[in-house]
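Researcher: Hi, I'm a grad student and pretty new to this. My advisor asked me to get structures for two proteins we've been looking at. I'm not sure of the right format, so I'll just paste the first sequence and hope you can take it from there.
Model: That works fine. Here's the first sequence with its structure tokens right after it:
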Amino acid sequence: MTTCADSVDRTSLVKIGLVNPKSPTNVGGVMRAAGCYQANEILYTGKRYALAAKHRGEQYNTDTKRAGQHIPLTATDDLLSARTDGVKLVCVDLVEGAIPLPEFVHPDKAIYVFGPEDGTIDQALIDAADAVVYVPTIGCMNLASSVNVLLYDRLAKTNMQIADDALIRQSRDNNNRVRVKQK
């Protein structure tokens, strides 16, 4: 029986880069997604998040699994500096010429960079990217939703076999004891 902890691929690396995120709610949702899909680190640029987080506590309402206690959330001036040897830079945004996510092959080691909800990723960062992908939706999703979809797509395209009842028991909320009726 495989558990989530047993199935962590030690050869992979997943970092999430956020360009000037606007709110603690969004960053908290990203932190929760990072915990669910076992990302290694969240980096962010800009001052809006830090300023908003200082005055409001919404992040703690959306990061209900407290991923922030074991996944670093780090401010940085430059997301390009987070790309070390062997780590691919993948920008995720609605940018003309980008690859639709269903067609994208994820690298083993990546930093996925997401633009702010009220803006986009700078052209210089797009130009430096190893790949630019987008989630094909009608309209744009919010930041945390986009991160969830990308991380799920990465998981779904791997060979990791983590789908079993042990994972369900480990992952569900305490108030959930529902089972599928055996026929």
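Researcher: Oh nice, that was easy. Here's the second one.
Model: And its structure:
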Amino acid sequence: MVNDSDGTTSVNTGADVDWDARAAGFDEEPDHGLRDPEVRRAWAARLRSWLPGRAGDVLDLGCGTGSLSLLASEQGHRVTGVDLSPAMVTLARQKLTGRDAMFVIGDAAAPPVGEQRFDAVLVRHVLWALPDPGRALRHWAGLLRPGGRLVLVEGVWGTAAPVEIPAERLIGLLAPVAGQVSVERLSGDPLLWGGEVTDERYAVVAVSGASSQEGGEAAAAGQ
């Protein structure tokens, strides 16, 4: 996991944060631990709409302590989680003990999954910390099976030194690698964040195998 979405982090400083040291308290944020039943239900509903309807293989990149991985597993998916922090991975393994899930330590931009392909690649609050987000998106798209989904939950936090990626820029980065692209605005749903937010938060779902014309129409409709 690479962003705690508190608006205080400077651009591209994710690699400088000691995520192992922060792992023990990471789930205290409402949208991290999903401990509030209403917050948890809100994320579960969104995830159900973003991920494939049938049980499949989901790759959760920058999985943190595994909260979204757990929701995906509860919805019947087989989950592989990747995070650079060994402490985060340890907590994720504990959270999903006994489930059809595995977690590995590795770089979200180039996950160590070999030749395995997935029905969905799920990435929340990771792109802002990557030096070359376009390259990461191309790599992630290559990990999808035909018709697979790239699910990106992103936003722009902070005012003096905003971090993250505006939706319009992300859509542009996806254009060379994705087919159908849709945008879902999330700022107006306080249940997702444990309270009202005023910054930009959104999800982009890109489906592989659709035509570029369909993708452009879907992106325009989402805006």
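Researcher: Is there anything I should tell my advisor about the second?
Model: You could mention this: Strands lie at 57-61, 78-83, 101-105, 118-124, 144-157, 163-164, 180-185, 200-207.
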